[in-house]
Design goal:
The protein has one helix and two strands; from the N terminus they run H-E-E. By secondary structure, the chain is mainly alpha-helical. It comes from Bosea vaviloviae.
């Protein structure tokens, strides 16, 4: 068990050093990913929104519904 206590102390020391590094360089780490709101007119055909691609990834396939 002595090894586990040393490992925990080393991990705590590393966490403190990492925290000091972040604070001293004014680093901002976002905790929340605020999603974008996407929309399309009901009169458009071929629009396929998904969270992984650009909103305009398939704009060549869009057309107006009649």
């Amino acid at each position: 068990m002595a090894g586990a206590a040393g490992w925990i102390a080393a991990r705590a020391d590393l966490a403190r050093k990492m925290n000091d590094m972040l604070v001293q360089t004014y680093t901002v780490i976002p905790l929340v990913d605020r999603g974008n709101i996407s929309g399309a007119a009901k009169s458009l055909d071929g629009v396929s929104m998904n969270p992984w691609d650009s909103e305009l990834w398939d704009v060549a396939g869009w057309s107006r519904a009649r």
